[in-house]
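I have been asked to look over a protein record a colleague put together. This is what I was given:
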Amino acid sequence: MGGRTFLIAFIAVFFIGILLTSFTVEAQPEEKPVIIDGDKIEYSDARKMVHGCGNVIVTHGDMTMTADKMAFDIQNKEAIAEGNVCLYQDESTFRGNYGHYDFGTGNGMVSDVRFTSAPFYGAAEEVQKTGKKIFVAKKGSFSTCSFEKPHYRIEAKRMTIYLDERMVANHVVFYIGDFPLLYLPYYSYSLREDRPRVTVIPGKTKEWGYYVLTTWRYEFNDNFKGVIHIDWREKMGIAEGVTHEYRTRKFGEGIFDAYYMQERLKGIPEGQKAKEERFKISLIHNWETEYSIDADKEETEAKTEDKNALKLYKGISGGGYRWEIDSKSTSKARVFLEYHRRSDKTFDKDFFYEEYTKNPQPKSQLSFVRKFPQFTFNIHGRARVNQFETVVQKLPEIAFDMPAYQLGGTKFRFNNKTSFINFNKKTANVGVTGSHSYFYTTTTHAGRFDTFNSLSYPTKLPGYFKWLDITPSVNVRGSFYARNAANTKRNFFRGVGGAGIALTTKVWRSWDIEKNLIGIEINRLRHLITPTVTYAYACAPSVPSNTLYQFDSIDNLTAAKVYYFALNNKLQTKWRTDEGYLRTANLIDFNTWIYYHPPREERKFSNVFFSLNLMPFKWLIWNGSTSYNWTTKNFENFNLTFKFTKPFLEINATHSFFVNRYSETAFRALYHLSPKWQVGCYERYDFSKKRLNEQEYFLSRDLHCWIVEVTYNVQRGYGESVMIAFRNKAFPKIPIEYETSYHRRKVGSQSEPVY
C-alpha cells in the first residue's frame, strides 16, 4: 500500500466532513431602549432629532458609541458621529474620526479606524458592522503587537471579525517591520484559541542532523480544524503530515493523524533503492448517545451529547476517555474506534519518542457499549493491522456486566460478568533469508465462554461492634472452552469457586481551629483513620491452568488464599477557593498495606508498601512511595516527587530507585530574573551508572509581543541540540520546551502540549 496515496485519499474524505457540521439560527433580540448622555444635549421635537456635544455616549444593549459630536434620529434610531468616534462591544474597541450607526438594524461604520479585539490590534481605512457581532475591515492590518508601529503585522484587503469566534482575512501579506515576508490568499484564526497559527522549531541532533519542524494550523470552523506538519531533517529528508480534528452533529467526533516521509537510506550501493517509505496513520473516533426512557410511552428517544469527548493527543491510545452514567432514568451508548497503521516497528520510537514511551503499541479496536442503569452490554473487537506486532485478536468479544445489583429490598448484592471471546493470537516472528530479514506469523485460535457470579451482603455488626462495616461474599466462575492447549480435548467446562470477607471502619476526630499556622491555611482540622482487612479464597480450578492457552488472567487462575491489611491516615482541613467556597484539602495522606499468602512455603508476607502525600501549601506538593522486603530487610524501591511553584520560581524534581536496577533523579528549575528575562535548566542523572543522561539549559527574553528562547540540550545517545524559537505572547499555551517530538513534556513542565 502506498502511504502517500492512502494519506491523500483519507484527507479528501475528511474534508467532505465539513458538510456534516452544524448550523444555528440566532433568535431575534428583544427591543431595548437607547440611552443618550453627554455634556450638552439638545432635542428637536419637529425633526425628532437629538444633538449632543462633548463626551456624547449612546448605549443600546451591549453596544456603546461615543464621540465629540453626535446627531441621533429618534424615529430611525440612526446616529452620525464626528471626532474621536468609538464603538464598543464586548471587549472589542473601534476608534475613528467619523462614524454612522443604525441602532435598529445593528449595522454601521467607522472610518480611519484603529481597533482592538483581543488578542489583536489593528487599523483600517474603514470598518463596517454588518451583523450582531460581525465587523468587516477594508484595507487594514492587524498584529498582536500593541505598538503604534508594530514589530510585525499582517495586511489584508479585507478582514472579517466575528467577535468571540474567529478572524478571516483575504489577500494577506505578512510583514516583519517594513519587509514583506509571505503572501497568503486566505487566512483564518479562531479567537477562542490562544495558540499560534504557525510554529517553527529548528535544531540539531545526532540522529537527524540539522532539522526544522513546522506546524501550520487551519480552521474552517469549530467542528473542522487541524494542523499540517512540514518537517525537514538533514539526514532523512522531508516529511509531511496532518492532524485533523472533526466533530459532527449526529455521529460523534474524532482525530485523524497521518505522517509520511521517504527516508534517505545510508550506505546504499549505487543502483539500489536509496529511499524507504515510512508512515503512520491513526484514526480515533468517539460517538456517544444518551437515551431517555419514557415508561408511559415505552419509547426511546436518542439525544447526542454535545461535549468534547476527544482530546488531541497524537499516538496515545484511548486518550483519557471517561464515560459515566449518573441517572437511573437514562441509558447511554457509545461507539469507539481506533485504527493505528505503521510502516515499521520503530517509526514511533524514531520520530515521536515521547508518545512511544507512553504507548509503544496502540490498539486497533472497535467497540459498541450500551449502558443501562442496572447493567452494561458490550460488543468489542480487536484486530492486528501491523504484521510486525504480536496481538491477541478478539473477533469478537461479547460481554455483559451487572455490578452490585440489589436483590429486592434486602442488603444482598448480586454481581454478574458474562462474556464470550473468540481468541485468535497472531505472533510475529522474524525470519532471515541471506542478508534480509522478514516477518512471518504463527496463529493460535480458541474460543471461551465465561461467567462470573458473586453474592455479597454489606452490613454492620450488631451491638458493641456496630461501628464495624462487614461484607461477606461468595462467588463461582464457570468457563466453557472450545479446546485445550494440546488440542487433545474439545468443548469442556472448567469451574472455580471462591469466597471472601472485608472488614473496614472509619475513625476520626475534629478540632474547631481557624488560623494561619506558619502560612498554612486551616479552617478546622480532622484526623481520619480507615483500617481495612480483607480475606479472599479461591479453590483449585477443575481444569489446571497449565493445560489451557494463556490469553488473559482468567486462563491463569489457580488455588489461592490471601489476606490484605491496609491502613489509611488523613489529616484534612478546608481551603478557600478563588470563588470563595471551602473545599476539603488533604494536608497529609499516608497509606500502608501488605498481603499475606498462607499457602506459600516461603515469603508468605509480601513487601510492605507505603505511600505519603504532603500538601501543606497550595504551592508545595511532596509525594513519595516505597516498599520494604521482609526477606532482605531492605527497602526495594523509592519514588519521590517534589513540586514548588511560585511566581518567580518553579522547581520540580523526581527520584526513582529500584534496588540493583536503577537510580535516577530528574530536576527542572525555572527562575524569573526580571519581568523580561527567564533562565532555566533540566538535569537527569543516573546514580547507578554514575553518569548524566541528559542536560538542558535555556534562556528567554521578552521582546514586547514576542518571546525569544534559546535552548541547548545534550542527551546521551542522541547528541547535542541547539534550538532557537520565537513564541508569540498572545498565545501562552505554546510550550517552553521545544523538542523533536513537538510536545514532549519534561518534569516540572506547566505547559500544555501542542497538537
